[in-house]
Amino acid sequence: MRRVSPAPLRTLPSTVMMWTVNDRVIEDPDALRAEFEDIATAGFRGITAIVRCSHYAWPDAPAMQALAAIGELCRARGLAYWVCADPRQSSARLEAGKGATIVTCGSATWGGIAPHTVAPRGGRYSLRCDVLPRPSHILTEGAVEYAPDGLERVVAFRPRPGEAPTAIDITAQSRFHWHAADRSAEVFGRFDPPANGPWRIMAFFRFRTNVFDFGDTDAMDRYIGALRALAASGVPADAVLWDEPGYLCMDGSFPFTPAIRARLKRDGIDLSRELWTLMLPAGDGRHIAVRNAYFRAVQTTVVQAQQRARRETRRLWGRGAIMGMHDTWRWESASCADRNHGSFDLWRALDSKDCGFADLGSVNLLETPGSAFHANLAAMSVVAASLGRHSATGAAYNNLWTTGEDGGALSQRRIMEHCVHVMAVFGLRWSAHIYGPAGTLGRESSFLGLPFTPGYPNHATWQGMPEWTELLERHRAPTEGRLPRANLLVVLPVESLFAADGPTADAALARIFRLLLSLLDRHYHPELIASSMLDGVVIKNGGAAVNGRAYDAVVWPYGDVLSARLLPRIRAAARDIHWLYRTPSRSDDGAMLPRTFRSAAISERALFSALARNNATLRPVTAPARSWASITDLRDGALLSLAPARAGGTYAGLLRYGGRRLRVSASDGLRCFFFPKNARPFDI
């Protein structure tokens, strides 16, 4: 085996360009060298090679040869080399047609009405589910395919306004039919309601798919074998990446694999019988326990697979090799569908990663200052930095990208430049997306139906890449790689979001995004951490400590469902927490909380009034209006970084910190100021 030592774990590039390695690159060495030179000349400090928009998968010999050649070029030019060797990209090859089983209760297997229900008429019912392939850029075949496997569960329920429905199992009296001509699955049968009322029928159809089953030992063995072949081919990887790992399931579709079912069985849950509680509430609250156990089990299979891949990566490429890539598949859109995908709890996934990774696409939506998408930029910036602070390397990457073109108006370039300035304020590095075809095989310039996206170098923002890389490098140099300070802990209420139905969870997450935007606009320094990370939390006197990091205040939005494990710690400190929007009422096992524990929820207006009473500690910086500001603590002082709070905006005014102040002239971009410990501050 030909081995090339990777770069040390902590020598992480400021910018990495993701490169689509397609048929042309794989089959033509001259094309490979020409595209490499284009990326290297643009100033990127590293390359992520991903075999995509191709007839080849990365375990194919020609693709491995191309990946090895790219690695040699990276070594010769001193560039970091990351390889995306995601098991899903070649799942059909690795699993010989065996993939994850899913169940769905929607009108379609992907993106339909969920739950899809019908009312029985004349003692009979019939309900259909459309079974069309789900387009996917991550699969070499270009789509998730579904093969009908019958009925898993059928229930009749009687909706009750303001109450949990009455539900009964009617699977035994239901029949399944597959309509091959129009690719739809049907359930039909007789149902004589046991009582009067508006009864509805809901069915869970079962399908086999070509999606990688992360909990299947044989599938993982085959994947590990492919990784070993990749190393043996001479690929000198500094990092092995998985791109948004998970089951590609949205609300209404659920991974239903043996590993997930077995894990729930150990928790005393028969998943088949309890499927209906994933969509409907139960009067005794057991849906809370089922949903929390289920969504945790789904993600555990993904995390454990990544952990195994991480161990093998370090065995093959050395202890300094990195495992990572962003998990945010729907997160970036403030959607909780990542619960079904297996990647919602980004902090739980840190057990298998070495850096903080986040993703934000379609930043072209920031074109208007009043765009609601600024909350998404705020949230994903906070998330990336938070994940980085709690990662093995203390580094964070954001995979910022855009769609469409601007017809030469340069608006796309101005928006991307704003995003780069925001990345600098948050201390983030950039995983840029994407050189070469951006879509799927046959639809190379349209990313899953989004507006025309040609990919680099044929995009308006390409010309700004060298300048933006230099900006991020210059900003990072004095920080010594440190991420900015965060002193206000905002808890992501994982248990509450797991317990809620899809639309309710989505609305709650979107509101949390807007909360983070409001905090940044008011010059607070928030850190978002999932409640699942708080096992060792110490909350006292209004502040908190998590993993050795101290916070001066704790804000807990939507804390209506709390982890039973955390109750002893939280009960004693409930008065020190700002409970926002909802008051604690149940634990994640469905049990009601005692009234002595419950605390009153407050509004955002009351929250900001309460935080303002501790201004000197929580807001050590007074920054100009319409800016976002960060503090990076250095050995000899503090670096204060400012950028406009909105794309296309400007700011000006006084900047105060540590009893000293500077007047900031009008600016529409990144500004940095150093406040030495014992000298006058100055503009750098």
Short description:
With 684 residues, the protein is an alpha/beta fold.
Model regions low in confidence, pLDDT < 50 over at least 5 residues? 1-10
Shape: globular
Give the overall pLDDT as a whole number: 93
Major sheet attributes: 8 strands, parallel
Number of helices: 17
Helix content: 25-40%
Strand order of the largest sheet: 16-14-3-2-1-19-18-17
How many angstroms separate the termini? 49 Å
Q: What is the count of β-strands? A: 35
Q: What would you note in describing this structure?
A:
By secondary structure, this protein is α/β, with parallel strands linked by helices. The protein contains 17 helices and 35 strands. An 8-stranded parallel β-sheet has the order 16-14-3-2-1-19-18-17. Strands 4, 5, 9, 10, 13 and 15 form a 6-stranded antiparallel β-sheet that branches. The protein has a 4-stranded parallel β-sheet with strand order 21-20-25-27. The relative contact order is 0.10.
Record keyword descriptors for this entry.
disordered N terminus; 6-stranded antiparallel beta sheet; globular; 684 residues; alpha/beta; 35 strands
Secondary structure blueprint with pairings:
Elements: E1 15-21, H1 23-27, H2 29-41, E2 46-51, H3 61-77, E3 80-84, H4 91-95, E4 101-104, E5 117-118, E6 124-130, E7 134-135, E8 143-144, E9 146-160, E10 163-169, E11 174-179, E12 184-190, E13 200-209, H5 217-232, E14 239-241, E15 253-255, H6 258-266, H7 271-274, H8 286-317, E16 322-324, H9 338-341, E17 356-360, H10 374-389, E18 396-400, H11 411-425, E19 429-435, H12 465-479, E20 488-492, H13 494-499, H14 502-521, E21 526-530, E22 538-540, E23 543-546, E24 549-551, E25 553-557, E26 561-562, H15 567-573, E27 578-580, E28 586-587, H16 604-612, H17 615-618, E29 621-622, E30 627-634, E31 637-644, E32 651-657, E33 660-667, E34 671-676, E35 682-683
Parallel strand pairs: 1-2, 1-19, 2-3, 3-14, 14-16, 17-18, 18-19, 20-21, 20-25, 25-27, 26-28
Antiparallel strand pairs: 4-13, 4-15, 5-13, 6-12, 7-8, 9-10, 9-13, 11-12, 22-23, 23-24, 29-32, 30-31, 31-34, 32-33, 34-35
